[in-house]
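Troubleshooting: if your tokenizer reports a length mismatch, compare against these two reference records.
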Amino acid sequence: MVGLSGGVDSSVAALLLKRRGYQVTGLFMKNWEEDDSDSHCAAARDLEDVEAVCTELAIPLETANFSAEYWDNVFEHFLAEYAAGRTPNPDVLCNREIKFAAFLDHARDLGADGIATGHYAGIASSPASLSLIKAADQHKDQTYFLHSLNQVQLAATLFPLATLRKTEVRRIASAARLNTATKKDSTGLCFIGERPFREFLARFLPAQPGEIVDETGSLIGEHQGVVYYTIGQRQGLGIGGLRNSNGEPWFVADKDVARNRLVAVQGHDHPRLLANSLNAEQMHWIAGQPPATSFEATAKSRYRQPAQPCRVSVSADGAKTTVVFETPQRALTPGQSVVIYSGEHCLGGGVIEASSTT
């Protein structure tokens, strides 16, 4: 059973599996209950595209509503993290709890042997375990968001796009005359869609305006609510024209939730935005355990960055790590994921708790 989102990647995943001789069924998941006035959620249009793809491929289509599971297992955590002043990554939880848990269970209930998605990632096997590996298209690789998958989930999953580049995926879709061939990639929140983020978050966490101060504590502006900002953010601060300012842009350096204050500093690489180590908790190791208690690796603290050389030290129970980078990293953000790699292999990851300069 292939998870079909209405995009080109999942469409081609289904096409490739059918060409390889698999008996393929599509599944369209609805995981967010929007009201009729919500113009930003394109679920209805996506379903139309999925129906057209299934018709073209001559495969059956199932639909499922996992909105309750999404709310309970993903969105409530998302809101709690923002309310605490952290910046969560809902795509990680969405993959673990919905796309590779609720979807997998539903597919098995319908008689499927396994599931497939249009993620850019690969799976390799060894006598000891299955490994999650980077996709051939390094610019599209999504192992960062898949680092919390376990051995059972990987064993039941196929990633047909592992060896393909995005340009090739679109070429295959075009040659097969799939209606999704030129469809724009989605960049919004997992299942919620593209929408003005602060406006959306304010529906659940009302605005609480407060002070923006510089690193000396001097008042330099007003924010609309600390929960709406993230470490390293430049846009939306509304600071400018200050006396004694050096003219460089301002960035969020700290969030004081208890006092409802933002601390801002000037300059993209201000020392308060840089750190060379972090502590992470809720570590998940794809193999079931870390490779050692201390080892050299590379790590990503955000999706788009290249993996950075580091040393990883793991607690006795494997649930916590300290990651020390060779070079200072910018805007290490509590609530975001740090993901550990050994070469092309994704070892796992966890949630950033704090960062420091050692």
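Reference record two:
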Amino acid sequence: MKAFTGELLGTFVLTLFGCACVACAVLFGEYVSIFQVGMVWGLGVTLAIYLTRYLSCAHLNPAVSVAMVVAGRMKAGKLPAYLAAQFLGAILAGAMLYVLFAPSIANYEALHHIVRGTASSVDTARMFGEFYPNPGDASVAVVSLPLAMLAEGFGTFLLALFIFFLTEGCNVGRPSEPLQPLFIGLTVASIIFFVAPLTQAGLNPARDAGPRLVAYLAGWQSAALPDAVGGWFWVYILAPVVGAALAALSFRYLLEPLLLSKSNDRPVCCRTTATPKSSTPQK
């Protein structure tokens, strides 16, 4: 129950903060640059980890939880509780987002002659789930289903890999424990900077599926889905899980053994330079 509560609360917080930033950008013209969105998402992740890491392991992402099982860092028996809490937390965040912004969304739709549930309502549906190409860059980005899967999978691969390197004790170059959530948040922000123009950078199946379900039930229906071939599943659920699992395998069987090699095999730049002895002659 402790871990379930931590995963639910943390996923709720990061999803609410991140989606609210996108909602404000869409509804109120507050979008300045991708830097703004990336930093808010990164900050949301950082705060969510600080909030819950002593309740659960603060995965807050089904792909990360799967990676931890693959890497042998968590027992597979704990996975269902973690996944259930994460998806429930994201659904509750999507519901709260809709309750808070429903009047503003309706007003925005009226002003822009948007009929909810039609193709044009993707403009407001993107406040909840992700779409490829990003509707905000639809005139520039050309993103096929395979490319979108690659972008989401590779982005989540990098995220999981950084989490392993930033938190595992065998990496002597990792930041101290109090700073680890901050660096994970900066990792999320950095990945968003180059993935979001293509796919809005989900990197988290719960963060996408939870609010997307709320949007579907709130009237967006088929407009809440990115295409007619199940792209919401292939791009935003399957690809991140595969990417994170590949990162776990790479770390467990290739990179971790290198980190565990003898200290005298470390590069010169990583060694502690001994203080030279004094050359003062003995009396």
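Descriptive notes for reference record two:
- The radius of gyration is 21 Å.
- The CA atoms of residues 26 and 211 lie 16 Å apart.
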